[in-house]
TrEMBL record:
<feature type="transmembrane region" description="Helical">
    <location>
        <begin position="12"/>
        <end position="33"/>
    </location>
</feature>
<dbReference type="InterPro" id="IPR051158">
    <property type="entry name" value="Metallophosphoesterase_sf"/>
</dbReference>
<keyword id="KW-0812">Transmembrane</keyword>
<dbReference type="Pfam" id="PF00149">
    <property type="entry name" value="Metallophos"/>
</dbReference>
<protein>
    <submittedName>
        <fullName>Phosphoesterase</fullName>
    </submittedName>
</protein>
<dbReference type="InterPro" id="IPR004843">
    <property type="entry name" value="Calcineurin-like_PHP"/>
</dbReference>
<keyword id="KW-1133">Transmembrane helix</keyword>
<dbReference type="GO" id="GO:0016787">
    <property type="term" value="F:hydrolase activity"/>
</dbReference>
<feature type="transmembrane region" description="Helical">
    <location>
        <begin position="45"/>
        <end position="64"/>
    </location>
</feature>
<dbReference type="InterPro" id="IPR029052">
    <property type="entry name" value="Metallo-depent_PP-like"/>
</dbReference>
<keyword id="KW-0472">Membrane</keyword>
<feature type="domain" description="Calcineurin-like phosphoesterase">
    <location>
        <begin position="82"/>
        <end position="241"/>
    </location>
</feature>
Amino acid sequence: MFPVYGPATVTWFLMLLLYWGSLPFALALLWWARRRWQRPGAWRRTKALVVVVLAGLFIDARFIEPQLLTVRETRLGLGAPIKVALIADYHLGVYKGRGYLERVVDRLNQLDVDAVLIAGDHTNSPDRPLDELLAPLARLRHPTYSVPGNHDESMPGPPLAKQLRDALIRHGVQPVEGRYLDAGRFIVVGLGDWTAHKDQPIGLRQAPADKPRLVLMHNPDSAMQLRPGSALLALAGHTHCGQVRIPGLYRPMISTIHPFDRGLHTFAPVPTFVTCGLGEVKLPLRFLNPPVIDVLDLR
């Protein structure tokens, strides 16, 4: 129940309150609307209907949409016979648990891809040992590569970068931050987290140029330091695409310096694809923005 790696902070208690207080809050809204509906008067009934609609939207954003799992296929037209699955930000801990990751792995194993790329933020104040929470990753049938995110580097969150790396290796996932690996049809280069100032492209400078190079990072702002033409594609997460994606209002929720959102961005020195991720932080809500596995065809 309590965090395994570090103390239970005020922020952690607030997240717990938001998570477990959501159902009583929704029921209170519906109870209030029912009381108003039972009283005579058109205005009272109008207010009751408005509250019912708002309660329905809240129930969708809190209890339905975060538990969905969608697969979005995108053809990028980059001329390379490569197909990868990109995931990020499942944030195991307060809001998401091992059971959800089991579903993600089941869905990934059904896909015809060359590799699975994980763009960081595996954790959110985990309440179980990482070996236990990440155990489903051992069942992945594709080669899998990973980099850490800001929540894995204690920005915010407990300091567990080493424990995370060790757990990933034990479950067959290859951490690539600060280095490159030959992934068969392409070279995967990993950057550390931008917030932790560990995103220097050391591996990219060392990587051979005889195969297409894909740069995996957490924060897409890291792509802005790359040289034009140094890689075929950069892949990132972090933004959650606003998480609660209310049209016209969600953009301030995206914590990047540059105007990254979702999908492919060509204003960066290297084409950069950003996934909306799988989990939630701050609020246990997703709206008009279900959790997603992005399947990218680079042909």
